[in-house]
Design goal:
It comes from Thalassobacterium sedimentorum. The chain has 178 residues and is α+β, with helices and mostly antiparallel strands. It has 5 helices and 8 strands; from the N terminus they run H-H-H-H-H-E-E-E-E-E-E-E-E. Helix 4 packs across helix 5.
C-alpha cells in the first residue's frame, strides 16, 4: 500500500471551526489544545494524538470516530448503480458506508412479503408515483405520491403495490450520523 494513501487531512478542523463561527482561540479554550497546535493541525503540519482527537471532536459535537472519518474521507466517492429485480420490483441501487439507496419501480398487483435481509437499520420509503401499502406487525400505511414512511427494518414488513409505482427506498444504519 502506498503510504500517501494513508494520509489524513485535518484541514477539516478548520472547516468545522469556521462553520461553527469559532476562532482558534475559541477552540483552544474549549479543547485545551494550544493555538499553535491547532494551527499546525489545520495545516496538516503535525500528527494528532488520540487524546487531542477526542477533545477536538467534543468541541464540534462529534465522536472521535466521526472526526477521524471526516479527515479520512475528504474527497467525494463515486459509484455506479447496480440493477436487479426482486419480486415485483426493478431496482437500481448504490450503497455507501451506512446507507443503501434504491430507486424502485413496481407494477400494480405485486407484493413483496419477504424483503431482502436487513441488519440493524431504519428503512425509509418515499413514494414518487402510484400507490403502495406497507404492512408492519401492528399497522399498515398506504402512501400516495410525495409521502414517505420511516420504520425499523428489523420488523417484519411487506410492500403491496396498489398502482404502478416509483419510489426511493433508503436503508440507514442506526449508528450512522448525518
Amino acid at each position: 500500500m502506498n503510504p500517501n494513501d494513508l494520509t489524513l487531512d485535518f484541514s477539516v478542523v478548520r472547516d468545522l471551526r469556521k462553520r461553527a463561527g469559532m476562532t482558534l482561540d475559541d477552540v483552544s479554550q474549549k479543547s485545551g489544545v494550544s493555538i499553535a497546535g491547532l494551527s499546525k493541525l489545520e495545516r496538516n503540519q503535525n500528527m494528532i494524538e488520540l487524546d487531542t482527537l477526542y477533545r477536538l471532536a467534543r468541541v464540534f459535537g462529534l465522536s472521535a470516530t466521526d472526526l477521524l472519518n471526516l479527515a479520512e474521507s475528504c474527497s467525494a466517492h463515486r459509484k455506479d448503480a447496480e440493477t436487479y429485480t426482486s419480486g415485483p420490483f426493478d431496482f437500481e441501487k448504490v450503497g455507501f458506508k451506512g446507507i443503501d439507496c434504491f430507486q424502485a419501480k413496481a407494477k400494480a398487483g405485486g407484493e413483496l412479503s419477504k424483503p431482502e435481509a436487513h441488519g440493524d437499520e431504519f428503512e425509509i420509503c418515499w413514494l414518487h408515483a402510484g400507490s403502495i401499502t406497507i404492512k408492519l406487525p401492528r399497522e399498515q400505511h398506504t402512501l400516495k405520491p410525495g409521502q414517505a414512511l420511516k420504520f425499523d427494518a428489523a420488523l417484519p414488513h411487506s410492500y403491496e403495490i396498489l398502482q404502478d409505482s416509483e419510489m426511493t427506498i433508503l436503508h440507514l444504519e442506526k449508528t450512522h450520523r448525518f
